[in-house]
Amino acid sequence: MPLTDKFGRPITDLRISITDRCNYRCVYCRTGNEGALYGDLPFEDYLHMARVLVGMGVTKIRLTGGEPLLRRGVVEFVRELAQLRPQGLKPASFSIGNGAAESRALSKPNFAASFDSGEPLDIALTTNGHLLADLAQPLKAAGLTRVTVSMDAVDPDRFARITRVANGYDHVLAGIRAARRAGLWPLKVNCVLMRGFNEDQIIPFGMFAREEGVTVRFIEFMPLEEGRTWSPTTVVTLDEILARMAEYRPLVEIPHARSETARRYRFDDGVGEIGIIAPVSHPFCGHCSRIRITSDGKIRTCLFSVWDHDLHAQMRRGASDEELEDFIRGVIQKKEERHHIGEPDFVPASRTMVHIGG
Length: 358
What we know:
Shape: globular
Largest sheet: 12 strands, mixed
Helix content: 25-40%
Strand content: 15-25%
Radius of gyration: 21 Å
Oligomer: single chain
Distance between the termini: 28 Å
C-alpha cells in the first residue's frame, strides 16, 4: 500500500540529517555557543533506513544537516543511495473462470503489489556551500541529482555578519559556480530573510538569480533558532518580498506542484527565477509530503513536532525490515495536520533547526 498519513497525504519525500555539526553560526539558527548535541550514525544505518523507506514509496531523498559536507564518506554514501530504485505500484490481478489460469486486472485496482519502477532516486543535498567547490563534481558523478545552497546575502560584509564566519562568501560563491559546472540542476540558492539583517538583499538577490543562472528562494524566518528570539515582527513576508522585487522588475507566477514548498515566479523577460517559501504567512501544510530523520536516527513528522520517534532504537534491537515498516507506518499516522506558528497555542519544536535537519 502507498505510504500515506491519516489525512490522505502521500509521503514521498525523505530528509536525512547526516550530522548536526556545522561550520557556520548563522544568527537565525545558532546562538554560537552550542555545538553538536546528538551526534552522527554510521552511513550504513542511514542507508538501511533509506532502503526501507524507498521500498515503501519514497521517491526523493534530501541530505541535510548541520552541514552534511563535513561528513567524510558523503560521496560514497550518495553512490550507495543512487543504487536504490523507488518502488512503483501496480494493480493486483486475480483468476477468473472455472479454475482457469486466465487473469485480468481489477477494474478498481488493488495496489497491493509493488515493483521496481526503474526510475532513479531523486537525491538532493542542502549545504552552506563552504566546502562544495571541491565536492560538486564527485557528488554529481556519484549520483547526486541537485543541490541547494544556503546563502543569506550577496554582499561579503553582510554575509560575514549573518554567518559569523570571515571570508566565507568567496567559498560559497565558488561552490555555487562549481555546482553549476558539474550539472547539479536545478541549482537553488536559499535565503532566509530576517528583518534588521538582510531584508535589503531582496533586489540584489533578484539580480544574482539573473546573472548566475540560479533559482533564488526566499524563506520566511521560522521559530526554529537556538536563541528562541523569533517574533512575528522579524518575518519578511511573501507579499512584502513580491512588492520589493516589483520595484526592480515585474514577476510572473509559474505553476508548481501542490507538494512543493515554494511559490515560483519568473521575471517578465524570462530571465531568472525566484521562489518564496512562506510557511508563516501562507502555510502549505495541507499538501506536505515530507518526513525527516535526524542525525541520531529519530523520525520527525513535522519541523514543528514536539516529539521524536526512535527508528534507530528499533534497528538496534534487531527489528526486521517488516517490523521497521510497521513502526514507520504507525509513526506516519501521527503526522500533524499543520503547524501553529503565530497562534496562541503554538508550542516551539522540541529541537531547533540545526538539530533537526532542514
